[in-house]
Amino acid sequence: MSTTELPLPTFADIEAAAARILGEVVRTPAVAAPRLAQQFGLAGLWLKLESQQFTGSFKDRGSLNKLKSLTPEEARRGVIAMSAGNHAQGVAYHAQRLGIPATIVMPEGTPFTKAERTAALGARVVLQGDTIDAAALHARELAKAHDLVFVHPYDDPLIVAGQGTIGLELLEQAPEIDVLVAPIGGGGLIGGIATALKARHPEIEIYGAECRLYPSMHHAVKKLPPNNGGQTLADGIAVKSPGVLTRAIVEKHVKDVLLLEEEQIEAAVNLLVEVQRLVTEGAGATALAAIAAYPEHFRGRKVAAIVSGGNIDSRLLAQVLMRGLFRDGRVVTLRIEISDQPGVLALVARLIGSTGGNIIEVHHQRMFFDLPAKRAEIDVVIETRNASHAEEIIAALEGAGFDTRRLSSRSDDVPN
What we know:
By secondary structure, this protein is α/β, with parallel strands linked by helices.
């Protein structure tokens, strides 16, 4: 049966999936986020934390529902999937638990840690192709050659029904919501949740969130030509071709698909850590990014946002958090011109300290040709309370006769 012939999953299919996977996936919390709700002018905000699943993403649900639907003969032969991350781990983890042989085809450029983590869950990892589409083609070939069951990441009614169990939980945990926002990659997540919610509350509005670099579902439903590519923080939803099955559900149930810039997604990752003390991957923060970027859709309403996953590399998270400090003006780099004489650097340090600034780094430059021989420049990285505090420090330095300009600041500032 081709994808175009597959029936759309029903509410009964989602209920059957919930019974099938009961006790083998985490019933994730839907936590109230009153500070974020107040910040964005919402009547209420609930975060559905799929980042707390065993493998760190919602993929556990659909993968398990698919695997538990196999016949004994199919389970004996084994399964194969293509993925660069969360789907790979979901399939590998539950296949290992159920004693089903699993092969995961990943693109050759997949980060070593992701391939290693998948292999550690018992799957045979095959690196093939330079893109996920090339990996998918090879996975199909291996499935045919070795009579393996292909586990598609989103274009499968059983996968969609498994993800739809999130919607069943939301109906119990936050029955008062009138808007839902969910990330879209291939569309399995939003397709399943929308099917569940609309069956019981047709008045609920549902919005999808995609990164602007990979607007595959947005362009498909609006009948625009594909335009995908580039490096995105939200790599979990960087899908070039949305599902045919899931597109039909989105067209039926989703009010709009909202596109997010990279800086908006990055800011949402940072905000969830700063305000909610919640670590998410880029894709997991896109629902909150959409709420922040399109306030006209959500102001005054009771909103649920799906935090789809928390699998972010620690080094990348550290970089995002540090960039957030620079963006907010809580860390600034100042270039200060001084006379190259003993005691002047100490005077600058005292001035900064007297205003409450904390010096993190100092770089002393004497060899710039545009400076007089008896002058020098120092680049000082300073921790501040906020952007206004940074301006106070600059004013104090200039008041003491030190020409000062900012090298890094909020994105909407310009150097002094």
